[in-house]
Amino acid sequence: MKNASNRLNLSVQYACNREGLPLRTDFVRWARAALVGGGEITIRLVDADEGQALNNEYRGKDYATNVLSFPYETEPVVQGDLVICPSVVAREAAEQNKPLAAHYAHLTVHGMLHLQGWDHDNDDDAEAMENEEKEILAALGYPDPYAA
Hints:
Elements: E1 8-15, H1 24-34, E2 39-46, H2 48-59, E3 67-73, E4 78-84, H3 86-95, H4 100-115, H5 123-139
Parallel strand pairs: 1-2, 2-4
Antiparallel strand pairs: 3-4
Helix pairs in contact: 1-4, 3-4, 4-5
């Protein structure tokens, strides 16, 4: 049995049409792969209106984005929320010719790293974060999300 410090408590909220969206088990697999230690995480899937309102309120950007990360704590376990906008994810996957599941996996991993303090504010941090994402996704069986 895993001890509490390695336990992942993941809630998935479908606040939009859930047809064709990944299952909770998918999000658990992707989040666990990117998590060091334990976590109490909520993933909320939202429509474009809610995604835009949150992005505007918290980042001052008046459009829906693919994933927003809201970190609360990193010790003793990671606590935070990820907000994913499926309409943006689907549009990006189509534009980039990526399998939809691979794009969801990437954005979940990306968001989970943000919850643990990773960032991409400068070139060195961006490169380190991208390399970590590539490693995690490869271990999950997904291709490099940054490949041309």
